[in-house]
Amino acid sequence: MLLHLSTWPEVEVYLEKSKGIILPIGSTEQHGPTGLIGTDAICAEAIARGVGEGINAMVCPTINVGMALHHTAFPGSISLRPSTMIMVIRDYITCLAKAGFTKYFFINGHGGNIATMKAAFSETYQHLADLNIPNAEQVQCTVGNWFMCGSVWKLAKELYGDQEGSHATPSEVAVTQYVYPESIKQAPLSPDVGAGHSIYGAADFRRRYPDGRMGSNPALATPEHGKQFYDLAVKELSNNYLEFLAAE
Amino acid sequence: MLLHLSTWPEVEVYLEKSKGIILPIGSTEQHGPTGLIGTDAICAEAIARGVGEGINAMVCPTINVGMALHHTAFPGSISLRPSTMIMVIRDYITCLAKAGFTKYFFINGHGGNIATMKAAFSETYQHLADLNIPNAEQVQCTVGNWFMCGSVWKLAKELYGDQEGSHATPSEVAVTQYVYPESIKQAPLSPDVGAGHSIYGAADFRRRYPDGRMGSNPALATPEHGKQFYDLAVKELSNNYLEFLAAE
Amino acid sequence: MLLHLSTWPEVEVYLEKSKGIILPIGSTEQHGPTGLIGTDAICAEAIARGVGEGINAMVCPTINVGMALHHTAFPGSISLRPSTMIMVIRDYITCLAKAGFTKYFFINGHGGNIATMKAAFSETYQHLADLNIPNAEQVQCTVGNWFMCGSVWKLAKELYGDQEGSHATPSEVAVTQYVYPESIKQAPLSPDVGAGHSIYGAADFRRRYPDGRMGSNPALATPEHGKQFYDLAVKELSNNYLEFLAAE
Amino acid sequence: MLLHLSTWPEVEVYLEKSKGIILPIGSTEQHGPTGLIGTDAICAEAIARGVGEGINAMVCPTINVGMALHHTAFPGSISLRPSTMIMVIRDYITCLAKAGFTKYFFINGHGGNIATMKAAFSETYQHLADLNIPNAEQVQCTVGNWFMCGSVWKLAKELYGDQEGSHATPSEVAVTQYVYPESIKQAPLSPDVGAGHSIYGAADFRRRYPDGRMGSNPALATPEHGKQFYDLAVKELSNNYLEFLAAE
Amino acid sequence: MLLHLSTWPEVEVYLEKSKGIILPIGSTEQHGPTGLIGTDAICAEAIARGVGEGINAMVCPTINVGMALHHTAFPGSISLRPSTMIMVIRDYITCLAKAGFTKYFFINGHGGNIATMKAAFSETYQHLADLNIPNAEQVQCTVGNWFMCGSVWKLAKELYGDQEGSHATPSEVAVTQYVYPESIKQAPLSPDVGAGHSIYGAADFRRRYPDGRMGSNPALATPEHGKQFYDLAVKELSNNYLEFLAAE
Amino acid sequence: MLLHLSTWPEVEVYLEKSKGIILPIGSTEQHGPTGLIGTDAICAEAIARGVGEGINAMVCPTINVGMALHHTAFPGSISLRPSTMIMVIRDYITCLAKAGFTKYFFINGHGGNIATMKAAFSETYQHLADLNIPNAEQVQCTVGNWFMCGSVWKLAKELYGDQEGSHATPSEVAVTQYVYPESIKQAPLSPDVGAGHSIYGAADFRRRYPDGRMGSNPALATPEHGKQFYDLAVKELSNNYLEFLAAE
What we know:
The structure is a homohexamer.
Chain A (H helix, E strand, L loop, with lengths): L7 H10 L2 E6 L13 H17 L2 E2 L22 H18 L3 E6 L5 H18 L8 E6 L4 H11 L9 H10 L22 H7 L14 H24 L2
Parallel strand pairs in A: 1-2, 1-3, 3-4
């Protein structure tokens, strides 16, 4: 079930049988010369909807913009500051918790979001406790990073080896090619690609990674690979969600 | 052009010929017994993309959650607090302004967003001036509310008269039916519907408007009407955008 | 009754018979070559006190500084940022709500305040609900803009036609002349006056409106006109307040 | 000169000969059974205007609401939280500093404001330095507390001895009687009055000081005393302001 | 008892017999050519632990960084902004109040902290009241400034007269020499030392006080003096703490 | 070199040869029935000072309180909210960056700090870029978690196997025993210890981990083990720091 395609009475009925909700979260940031700026949101959304459909779970509208400050020296990148993102997540969960949702499963498409999400969860638990919402103590949040699923990781290594890299990777590009086959981009990719540098500020990032890729060769991606990654991620995260729901 | 389906070099090229960008903004809130919770985001996104396609303008990913605190006593509604939303909009524009965008045309699907958006624009102009970004003084933001377009309003009155109401209206429901014909909902609608009350807090709102509608009869909506509204809004807002771009 | 000229036991007695309070809110901003910087606060305060006196309603001290960031390229203008103003209004209402006030009628002298005030009301309703103050759900805020009163508007059009303009208007200048006849200012006014431009940041505003006026000819103002506007605004807003109090 | 009764060109002329401005700041809080809720703002405003008139200094509109959280268990009291008040003062000074003012002389009527004002000054100096405003390093803020003037203190002790107390004092009540002789209040005053307790939260304060007075006997106040206090404070603070302006 | 050397069951036992806690707070800021950057934290910590040991009171870990923005033009100085420090103190007390502590005795080593601490206490009382923590109304905070103890002040005047000054004083340097005899620093001290200037921003401060001292001659300090100051401060503050605990 | 035992001229000299600084950060939180509440700060401080001493690096005063909201249902635990901690770290680095430090090496004793620290670094890079501090683009922050050092981890597994657990671990308790041999605590430890549960809010945490331990048996710790851990961590982190400094 997609929240945005549901009515409020349908949500009311849903809450009688489940307190769980899936929240796709991505980012709007450069993904190298051929990767889509929406890559992280596209992947998270597609996979989250796949999970929701398969196991009849409610899926929230996608958080399209995340924490990508280090990418903002490339045009088209948009980022929340961490302090803003904490308030955004706190606001989302506060509204949903008042309605009765207690199990929040974020399906995340961007490594840069993880730290701020965890900070936001801590801030939110405390905030809810201070509000004395009846079910505040039952609220639980977790993150499922599709690109860190064991099965996904294994396939990426098999298909791409070291050329998987860590940003603008062929695996994530492949998923976007599967979802948006009409938006497959071509551009010359320098064989020399920055890799292994630590991430600091935006200007520094662009100096180290001049075309935006981090050690990756997205030219290896195909839509068929994308379907494979999508299927693996949906399967693994579906299991993870069900375990999360079942846990006390 | 859709920002999320573009690469950063494509954005760089775009910026050479235009400094304008369209930002769809909606809300995630109850829309009565038959209206979709995502109605405002769905309409804003569809119309914004229609505008962008017709006149080759860049369209940002949709801001799916807006200022809907007064709807949050109905399950499934999610809202930012105004203070959070101001920071979100400030963060978006700050990133895009650093990349060179100066003309921000928000296509809005939710009346409840307007006040906070205007507050956010003021906050942002000041913030950018304090940062000494080169083009800070050129930054201009404006809102195009599709549901307030003269042509849309006229058609709504012709088709629905007083039954248009002011929330969960047949016109907005019609647009969602046109965009998502597979998600047309049916439910009994009481002929007695709250209308004309002022809007205060969430609990008060639900007391006055027990099924979420405000004076509307969404049963009048049809997908064909939706196409008409869509076409009118795209046409009128396209002109508005071009005038905005052309203005000094 | 003026709150600042009352004692706390008098407020206690007042609360036994009324939960309503009038809050005048203005701005401290340039009003062209002849308009007083305090125009918006002066008008709001005078009219609010007129209303309070006529119908025995409590009147709060005036909020003298509002949201006028776009005027701050002219010396003497002072503005809160919207995010600050939201916190100010939230703090005012939180204190007064704990004491038992539930009906907040802001009499406003500045169009630029409206958006931020509405944002602040939404933020405040939510905040009060989270505090579990007993009467939080009864709290209602509304804005009465004296310059938008139908009777005021009609007279302004009769007296000044198009020369009323939209900032540093003869109508508001007239009210200040009525209230402070000893502070009537004279200065040459260029017949060419900026008009019809959209409002963005402060530097941009001063470029478009070099002497601060927006399409107005304040030289038409007289203290006698001011008295007429004052009387009309007091009468109309008194009725508005009483209706607001009487409404459920 | 009163800022609110000036035009922006008059401010421009003023800035050619002085960079100083006087900012009256009071509070809106209970002052015992007979003291006016606006006492602190009334005194600060009257004295500030007296100073400004005598030495031709610009006087800002009064900040009517300050930091009075500990009084908020009495109806009619309104307070900013310290974190809000810091932002308010920062916003005021930022606007005025951009216009060229560098010497900020706050005339304060409320002891409870002092700590937060000092915190706000520190926050503001840092903020201005970060903005790279040309004259940021010249910005200087100071507080003149009229009730702590040596001459005022001496007279209060002579007239009232220990019955001066520390809140709702006869000296401040006398000043309000001088300014608003038509608002002199009478009420039985218990001879037993709380005194000497430390100040903590609002509920605690009301328990310790049940009628709001702190060791004072405001029945001793007369309008004639008020004039004496007013004259002394104006004289002493005028000298203080001139010394502040003259200092490097 | 030192909180950081206790276990949580030991704290639980402690709370059965006392609700009081001592919080040392210092600063990390320049103290002239020979004074340690940690002077204020070192003194506060040593004295607080002396107090705690003597009377069996719980001592919190030291807040090492306080409000020292005016010192930040000297390398090595670190400061919180006042708005940050208010949140830090609010967070500390909120955690401890939930555990049952109600009496907070801050032993402070830095004059520049006082205003912000007082602001923080007010903010915190209000915050706790809004949370409806059971014992919120019992929470009391106070500051004991060791350098303002009557006995300390008297000895400093006897030993150093006017050369005590007001920053990088021989008394505080002496205490650090007593605590860290291995870290006694030598450097030429100009006999001309800035004194008597008001404190504004950081750049201004460094201009007025070029070597960081304010009217002081820290060369007069000895470890033996330090022991005397330490003993006097521990004795006087121990009494103050016990009176604070005993007061209702 | 310890910053708090240095003078500002010594810092000035230091900056001529190094732009690096070590910041120990811990937490103040329950560590089971026998672990010290200050465990994380004690370990981070001792190890950071060991590193600084060995390689002549500047060491900042310890941040004693971190992000431990999930431990706050146990008395004695103190936590910053993530949003506060972000501001604290931003303030620290802003001050130090203005003085010329560019390489920030945090030595961390608490896993719960990591996410918020990373969020704070991102927030800070952006903040510094907006300030146009000359060396903003050179600022680099990194975290060295002593308990995650490969050599430490290996020894812990050898000594304790599965009884290392993940909170109140014998390895961290051992380090505190080495540093504070006089504060070794004894208490009966239930052989049944919670393990493997996810971490959510504070009340939930205490329910799952009733005595505060997470799968650990701290009774295995000895001061001798502590010395071994200390030595390994100092050695490994010293190398890490030097590599960090040497990296571009």
